[in-house]
Amino acid sequence: MRDDNERQTCTGQTANGERCTAWPVRGREQCAGHLGLGKLDPKAASLRSAEVRAERKQARLAKREMSYSDHVAAAIERNADAIVQAFLDAGLKSGDWRALEALVTRHLGKPVERVEVETEGVDLRSLSDVELQALKRKLLMQRSA
User: Fold this and answer.
1) Could you give the 3-state DSSP secondary structure of residue 98?
2) Other Cβ atoms closer than 10 A to 33
3) How far, in Å, CA of 109 to CA of 115, rounded?
4) What's the DSSP call for residue 12?
5) Residue 121, SS3 per DSSP
6) Which string of DSSP letters, residue by residue, matches 25-79?
7) CA nearest neighbour of 87 among 74, 76, 71
């Protein structure tokens, strides 16, 4: 019989011959698996437990590898319906057009205005002082007109 002050584990053996580390059923020497009380046999339960632990470890590692932006994007995805509803409530019920604009620009992106500047292809560094002064007068006259 075991000593009550001593912590005991199951007296059964694992498939590789080591002692089982599960807690015994109260008043018995073996765990539920070795007594045949569990729904799964000890080997299948051990394999499934190892799979679950591996999945959880992978999830923790993936979470650690996420950047700040990844965490924010994930939170936004989880709460997308509430975020859209908050924008709509602010825009439609409160009359804040900026909330609606923010919702649309977040979804479609802000419009980009492109300005093309055409130059005559003159390299100012190659002009003489006289030519630079003439160009300056010409531009000032165009500006004042």
Assistant:
1) helix
2) 21
3) 19
4) -
5) coil
6) PTTSSS-HHHHT-SSS-HHHHHHHHHHHHHHHHHHHHHHHH--HHHHHHHHHHHT
7) 76
Pull the structure tokens for residue 60. 């923790």
Rounded to whole angstroms, how far apart are CA atoms 103 and 86?
Answer: 10
37/19 Cα distance (integer angstroms): 19
pLDDT tens for 112-143 read 788 776 666 777 788 889 988 998 898 898 88
Give the DSSP H/E element, type plus range, for residue 144: helix 129-144
Tell me which amino acid residue 82 is: A
Place of tokens 């939170």: 75
Domain positions in the chain are 8-65, 68-108
For residue 105 the two structure tokens come to: 């620009």
Distance of alpha carbon 69 from alpha carbon 71, whole angstroms: 5
Picking from 4-18, 19-33, 77-91, which range would have the lowest pLDDT averaged per residue?
4-18
Whole-model pTM: value is: 0.32
